[in-house]
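Quick log. Single chain, no ligands specified.
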Amino acid sequence: MNKIINIHTHIFTFNHVPAEFVPLQSLVTAVLDWLPGLVGYLVSDRAELFLSRGSGETQEDILNELNAYYPSGSEFVIHSMDFEYMGAGGMHKGFTYLDQLEELALLKASPKWKDRIYPFFCADPRRPDMLRLAREYIEKRGFAGIKIYPALGFFPYDDRLMELYGWAEKNRIPIMTHCSRAGSVYFRGDTAADGSRKPDYMTRKEWADTFSAPDNYELIFETFPELKICFAHFGGEKDCMEFYKQGNLPSTSSYICGDTGNIIEKSSTYQKSLADYKNWFLKVVNMMKRYKGAFADISYTSGDEDLMALFHVYSHGEKMVEKNYSLKDKILFGSDFYMAHLKRNERWFSINLRSRFGEEAFWRLIENNRNYLFG
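-> predicted structure:
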């Protein structure tokens, strides 16, 4: 019997985020305890969701909740998060990034979860001994891959990451990168990991977008052509919806019908650099076309009912999008639990996705997950 595998989940608790992640965090936490209905007026929806994973919960508590939404035996890729360099204050005692990793390693070693969870090590180039730690947790502690989250303050082509990529390419270690415009998780400082300073004309969220942009990966794929990188969220809900609903993006009107072949590469506006396109969904699609190891997951973004139709078409492949190219083997199933609960609950997401895609296409996504993880 086939087993579902969700490629993108989180189980860290609010204790694992920095002490100043939410403005006036102590006050907001007190309000959550006494007048929870008011929290939504004080913080963003995503920050409120983090807060709801309170101090009484462990990562296994959240994993048990996730597991309850799925058929028996389902498997989960769990993405750790290293928040310590984002400039949002210190960490709570006993809940540092290394504590988070150790708890995940113990879960992975337990009889209940050892064959059902695949933790990813979150790599930040500012962390001392980052490569040594990644190798220790992947080679010795049962972790299965690497997570990067550039919006936390670094470019993915940072020199300190290049040796990690070389090791990952050689050993077929999958990498997952956050690829949507900034939400609540973004760098709060003014000096990035490489020493560059925030331009005065940019907000911090706009600056964080420059770290996460798909264009940054061209150099990485050119240097490591066999590297496996999944672009989480397919460029993000905003850009996917823009591509889906607006007809004035480059090549959009012809791109879906497939009657003109490889229309984007024939476009008079097309150049090698993906910077010619502002839409991140379009950038990710082109990256997947150009590089063997480029994948994308539909996590969080597919929580929008309209966008299920867009991904449904792309997941079917031949002649439905372009007659000369198919992405059907490069799209992955993930939900972004528990972030996806900002849109819908996990059960709604998984059942509706399976219903919309149909059994054949849904199970192809699951097979793609396994090829990405283990191929």
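The first helix runs from residue 25 to 34.
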